[in-house]
Amino acid sequence: MQTPDGYTLTAHTILLIAQKILKGNLKPGYQTPASAYGEDLIMEVPGVKREIIK
């Protein structure tokens, strides 16, 4: 997986999740980003690429 640097990745991810929450897409209680929005949430962040190695 290729991602932007850690600071940029964190900033984009926070904004992405905040947008989802403001649109009413949230679960009450403690959630990790993956448990709240699925394991492919990271693929919504600009600059993220996944390569499947067989």
Q: What does it look like?
A:
The protein has 54 residues and is mainly α. The chain has one domain (6-44). The chain is 41% helix and 0% strand. The chain contains two helices and no strands. The protein has helices at residues 6-22, 33-37. The longest helix has 17 residues, at 6-22. It is globular. The two termini are 14 Å apart. The model has no long low-confidence stretch (mean pLDDT 94).
How much β-strand is present in the residues?
A: under 5%
Question: Structural class per helix/strand content?
Answer: mainly alpha
Number of strands: 0
Biggest sheet, in brief?
none
Cα gyration radius (Å): 12 Å
User: How widely separated are the two ends?
Assistant: 14 Å
Task: Give the topology string: H per helix, E per strand.
Answer: HH
Overall shape: it is: globular
Low-confidence stretches: none
> How many structural units, i.e. domains?
1
Averaging pLDDT over every residue, what do you get?
A: 94
Q: Helix share of residues?
A: 40-55%
Tally of helical runs: 2
List keywords for this structure.
mainly alpha, single chain, globular, 2 helices, about 55 residues
Break the fold down into its secondary structure elements and pairings.
Layout: H1 6-22, H2 33-37
